[in-house]
TrEMBL record:
It comes from Saccharopolyspora kobensis. This is Carbohydrate ABC transporter substrate-binding protein, CUT1 family. Keywords: Signal, Transport. CDD domains: PBP2_UgpB (cd14748). The keyword Signal applies. Pfam families: SBP_bac_1. One of its GO terms (molecular function) is maltose binding. One of its GO terms (cellular component) is ATP-binding cassette (ABC) transporter complex, substrate-binding subunit-containing. Residues 1-31 form the signal peptide. SUPFAM superfamilies: Periplasmic binding protein-like II. Belongs to the bacterial solute-binding protein 1 family.
Amino acid sequence: MRSRSQVKRGLLALATATAALVAASCTAGSAADGPQPAPGPDEQVTITVSSQFTDRELDVLNRVLDGFHAKHPNITINSQGNQDDDKITQAIRGGNPPDVAISAETINLGQFCSSGAWQDLGPYLQRDQVDMNRIVKVAQEYTEYEGKRCAMPLLADVYGLYYNAEAFARAGITEPPKTMSELTDMAKRLTEFNPDGSIKVAGFLPVLGSQANHPWNWAPHFGASWMDEQGKSSLGTDPAWQEMYRWQKELVDFYGWDKLVQFTSGLGQQYSADNAFQRGKIAMMIDGEYRTGFIDQYAPELRYGTAPFPVADGRPELYGTGFVTGTIIGIPRGAENAGAAWELVRYLTTDTNALVELGNGLKNVPTTTEALHDPRVQRSEQYQTFLDLFDNPQLVPSPPSPNGSAYMKSAEDFSVKWQSGQVGDLGAGLRDLDAQIDAAKALGGN
């Protein structure tokens, strides 16, 4: 179960992290040539592991780290939780990096690799003959940037459709939608209004920036591409983006923007017991597999189902796709005990027992094929949907960029203006957005 908001939180810290990463490439000190050897069995070493985990999630990680220590008693681990990307980057910049860094913000990989803030793991993989084909292909893709692998995938988050089974039954709906027109029709049928016309229950909340509604979560289901073959922003040239935004606007107009603003202002926080879907305020939504853990804990009485998220009309070949992101792990530049750090990184990302224990404890998807299909993986009917989705080669990660999630934040800022009626010409607005994204990317070092 994830208690962090992943990409969205990364967007909020983007400016600080970007500046720090650029500085880190100049101040953290050069990594030694070649892979560092593992410590000998009689050599006592302590390594520091920094992660964003806290409370119960940190306990899960620490139990798995204890398993590593049992296999390598000469390597002691100092696990430091509540360390987000900004804190880790500041430590790298200050010349006091952890030996191992765990990040929940996959989109920052381009920064980590291009700045040199995280070391290239290629020499270690080659030396130890690690078979990367054991790792699901999409996870391989989102941990590499321009031919450099400065991270390994730890666990993954996959997004799909959640729906309230009791609401479906009341409305006479027998199966989840597969197309956007079906989603629109069902959303209207499932919506309930109060006597004063305000929204009581939203069949589907079409507000980007609310809950798990983000352009990057929706885009794969329309076949929308972020960049063209030249690496330029393509929101203004790929017609799928206009289709996505026009579909959204139809639902926004059905509800009324002012009513949506009022409705969303009264919803509970996304990662809490008061989540709107858990409280029956939203009948259908897009979200990650981790939501099943929240429901188990906070709303065990909720009858719900999961399915792949619907796709654009006329694009049935896209059904089963979805956005994927995840937790990544690497060795920061200047790490004092890189050899021992690599032993831990390899263990956490390739050992089936470790991945199954982490996946079950954190309610995230394991990233190796062996762990994904391990019978010990706890799989309810609802959770199985996401395991099946992760097996789909059509999954889409966001393309890494040297300035991290800046382009995603720009797209979300544009979306807020569009849905509130501040954009008159959608095509012109998207072309202007392309120019803004490309300019920012150039300043980011590419």
